[in-house]
Write a structure and sequence with these properties.
This protein has two domains: about 80 residues, no CATH class; about 130 residues, Alpha-Beta Plaits (2-Layer Sandwich). It is about 25% helix and about 30% strand. The strands form three sheets. The chain has a five-stranded antiparallel β-sheet. A four-stranded antiparallel β-sheet has the order 4-5-3-6. A two-stranded antiparallel ribbon has the order 7-8. β1 and β2 form a beta hairpin.
Length: about 240
């Protein structure tokens, strides 16, 4: 009987992440510590295709906006600079309410991140949106706190950047108990955006090879094996 591989594929917009590996081994009472670590590693690789950590999840959320994703940086001038994290959140909520009124209650896909620990240590807000829903000129009108910087996410100056680089950047600041409260997640997203993420496709296959389509953008592939099995993981962006 031919060997069968456990396959998982997660799509988010035109981003595709796929895993193929030998059927997950079961733990046994006779396993050594080394055996258990080897089995756990095989299972952990499968989770990287879905949302193993905050960066993986954020990458999927940004990818749902596709090539229309735009990154705004909302800065505070001296007059409006908040002293506390709670005040930044209040300013963000007020801005989103203005956006809601301007858009007449139409749902907006957005990902906000509050930062203040790097650079000059001034609070500022990163906001990723679909520029078709919220163009830069509208943001500059509705943001009353200071300057607004904007740049496209997917491609800049003709170069395809993808989505993960921004996900890693926006996940860099962690709770410190002072600037960023303990337990505060580095980012959040609107419910209407998270609801657009399709469930992963799961199936069994006789092939352990992942076929990346011709012309795919930013293709990446990695593989591994140990005494209990093997796996292959690939990511790419459909053109």
């Amino acid at each position: 009987m031919a060997e069968r591989f456990y396959c998982v594929r997660q799509r988010a917009g035109n981003l595709v992440k796929e895993y193929r590996g030998t059927l997950p081994p079961r733990y046994a009472p006779s396993d050594t510590d080394e055996d258990r670590r080897a089995k756990a590693d095989l299972k952990a690789q499968r989770r990287t295709v879905l949302n193993r950590d905050s960066t993986d999840r954020l990458e999927l959320m940004i990818a749902l906006m596709g090539k229309y994703a735009t990154h705004y940086i909302l800065e505070f001038d001296d007059e409006h600079l908040p002293e506390r994290f709670a005040d930044v959140r209040k300013a963000l909520r007020a801005f989103l309410r203005r956006v809601e009124r301007f858009r007449r209650d139409r749902f907006l896909d957005y990902i906000p991140v509050i930062e203040g620990r790097h650079g000059d240590h001034r609070y500022h807000i990163h906001l990723v949106v679909d520029r078709r829903q919220l163009p830069a000129e509208t943001v500059r009108i509705l943001w009353a706190g200071g300057n607004v910087t904007d740049w496209p996410v997917f491609k800049r100056r003709g170069k395809v950047l993808g989505f993960r680089y921004l996900a890693k950047y926006l996940s860099k600041e962690r709770s410190d108990g002072f600037i960023i409260p303990i337990g505060r997640h580095p980012w959040s997203c609107s419910r209407c955006l998270s609801a657009k993420l399709p469930p992963p496709e799961v199936w069994l296959d006789e092939s352990g090879q992942i076929e990346i389509p011709q012309g795919a953008l930013l293709p990446k592939r990695r593989s591994g094996c140990n005494q209990f099995g093997s796996y292959q993981v690939a990511t790419w962006i459909d053109p």
